[in-house]
């Protein structure tokens, strides 16, 4: 967005203003910009989706200005929902899809030889016209495609009736789309069927993935080999299109980190696809207000949170793009108006300092980020549970598992979706957190992983399939065990690892209402089972959904040694061919003294990490020394009132 007319800069092009803005961005050390149309497509193309010549010339002028300053460009086409261009359904109407493809491919044909241009097909996509939900839009085309999908996956209606636990006579003829109440766990009390929403989620995910494939094909048909992506927001792993389905049709994945400040790490990990780069394509601060409409955070506090977000963009990611450079003062919402590194009067916020300092550090990183090694622990995301009426519980289980591993055990995890378990690789440990449900195909893949020598930690039973039908998996591995509802508030989980470890569990009302627990044939609540060449560690209770986040690690050691572990602070090492990158993030109210030995380089590192601060340290394996670093001290130098309270120092020496 330009400093002059913000979002309307393609409507009112002013190359002189663009030149000034892009020069500022370049001089700040930033090395990529994201721009595009987002909305208002009728201004840029005719009713058939063909862009006007003036539109193409405006894009050309913008690209030439960006090239002047060596800035690669990601160009966005749509936002939230693709324009139907006179059609009915944005993803399923063949006429609408044809016109969308014309729009995108015409732009790609004009600029297919531009090497610094990438395409972002849609920003923060929703599947439904009710934005940010995976609910039906309800039009006749969607109903038709829904029934075609059901007929393909359930050619025998008796199988569908069994899956949905309904009489076959109730699903004859055209099957209506699910209603809103079907997506609520209370729908069953009112004669509605929540079992069908898993199939609707699969239908919607596949439909969106097909749309992405079609748009990508349109770009490739022009001779373009430019990168293609989707601008995915952080909600994309709950009630949105998921990269687990469309990921194969993009060249890299993205995430937008905004509201979910407790789950920034989890957001990054679920956005990552095996073998592909992941970029935090939007990050920044939306203003939080008190009830009296005053700001909750000072500009300095906002900058500290922003710094933590940018730091975590290097965890299994490729850095971050701030949304946005110039504040959009035309916005009417109080939380959106202040977003930007530069205020409307052109002065800089403290977060601009964060971006400058990270840009300097990122430039030093580039030669050393070769051949990243996969993390040691895989967390399995159960889509069968996630795409159910109580999917929020599965999301919470994943988040708590990731936080316990990374912030307390200091083990580096990655996330594998249920439909991609065959891409899991060979982690030292796979964790299935409080899944309750899993497809039989995914279950068999996990057993195969164990039989081949893997270690699998399961918390709670997994005795239901994707339609919540019984699957006697626990009893097959633990004869004599049974499944019962989780109906108590307090219990103990006793783990026999290297020493006895007792976890006090407290289950809240929602867990008591919907979850189950495994009851072994004896009094123990933890079992270690041999299967083939590997082992299964089975906890009877869904412990991630109980209170607390600390937990023992199963024979997996951090990649460093420390005389005192720093609980609640993220210390995330990423191993590369000739270097190790440590990402430190404090979510604590107190300063933290960090002192440890890195196992890969044999070096000692001492760090005073300020409360709420972040630091990154790049260690060279040959140098056995710090190659470069970023620390909160660089930010604090611009905050005189807080400067005396904190210090940040990195010292390193060989062992």
- The number of strands is 25
What is the gyration radius calculated from CA atoms? 26 Å
Mean pLDDT: 88
Annotated CATH architecture of the largest domain: Alpha-Beta Barrel
Which fold name is given in CATH as the topology of the largest domain?
A: TIM Barrel
Residues in helices, as a percent range: 25-40%
Strand order of the largest sheet: 9-8-10-11-17-16
> What is the strand content?
15-25%
User: What is the global morphology?
Assistant: globular
At the first level of CATH, the class of the largest domain is Alpha Beta
Low-confidence stretches: 634-655
- What oligomerization state is this entry in? single chain
Number of helices: 17
Structural class: alpha/beta
Could you explain how this protein is built, in words?
The protein is an alpha/beta fold. The chain has four domains: 7-131 and 215-363, TIM Barrel; 140-201, no CATH class; 377-545, Class I glutamine amidotransferase (GATase) domain (Rossmann fold, 3-Layer(aba) Sandwich), CATH 3.40.50; 560-654. The strands form seven sheets. A six-stranded mixed beta sheet has the order 9-8-10-11-17-16, sandwiched between helices. α9 links the parallel β6 (277-283) and β7.
